[in-house]
Design brief:
heterodimer; A: mainly beta; four-stranded antiparallel β-sheet; 0% helix; B: mainly beta
Chain lengths: 115, 115
């Protein structure tokens, strides 16, 4: 069984388009995250939700909007895509927010290419 | 504020040789430290973690890491490299508490294993 899944795995689109990436976890975790991994493999957190509540919102353009319909899902919608948005986006989940343990389980990633 | 520095973006070893991947961190609160591995075109997988207690932490695939507070280091080692260890390795720090489990990653170290 897949623990953290993301769709699509690959996404190629034109500048200016709007696209969404979906994430689902079947681990029963309360907290989910979106990370961006750039072309140099640098990983940076974008957002985090705990039980549908936004708890981390890093300095991310307003064009990026996360949505959590329930605690098992965290989607990422991107408006007016730009070339610089090309990256691999990883979803992750963890059992509780702010716990000492805080092991995060990562999805396989979505490779977004903006042309 | 937290930060992680991984010394050496590329490390190359021969099969059977010692693996040493360096990680130094900065944290204003007691850190929780993690090593993740990323195989090509895959998500991140947790290798090991340090929260409290024993400073020498053992993980999967024969890896271990030692937390040295005086040196603010958490270097990853493996006595004998295997070809299957070739991957990218990320060190990460979490402050816990009000950081809501935010993970800050280092820039990654690519490990190459030669026959």
């Amino acid at each position: 069984d897949t623990a953290v899944s993301q769709t699509p795995k690959y996404l190629v689109t034109q500048m200016g388009n709007d696209k969404s990436i979906k994430c689902e976890q079947n681990l029963g975790h309360d907290t989910m995250y979106w990370y961006k991994q750039d072309s140099k493999k640098f990983l940076k957190i974008m957002f985090s939700y705990n039980n549908k509540e936004l708890i981390i919102n890093e300095t991310v353009p307003n064009r990026f909007s996360p949505k959590s319909p329930d605690k098992a899902h965290l989607n990422l919608h991107i408006n007016s895509l730009e070339l610089g948005d090309s990256a691999v986006y990883f979803c992750a989940s963890s059992p509780n927010r702010g716990t000492l343990n805080n092991e995060q389980f990562f999805g396989p990633g979505t490779r977004l290419t903006v042309l | 504020a937290q930060s992680v520095t991984q010394l050496g973006s590329h490390v190359s070893v021969s099969e059977g040789a010692l693996v040493l991947l360096r990680c130094n961190y900065s944290s204003s609160v007691p850190p929780y430290l993690f090593w993740y591995v990323q195989y090509p075109n895959q998500g991140l997988q947790l290798l090991l973690k340090y929260t409290t207690g024993a400073t020498l932490v053992k993980g999967i695939n024969g890896f271990e890491a030692e937390f040295k507070k005086s040196e603010t280091s958490f270097h990853l080692t493996k006595p004998s490299a295997h070809m299957s260890d070739a991957a990218e390795y990320f060190c990460a720090v979490s402050g816990g508490g009000t950081s809501y489990g935010k993970l800050t990653f280092g820039q990654g170290t690519i490990l190459t294993v030669h026959p």
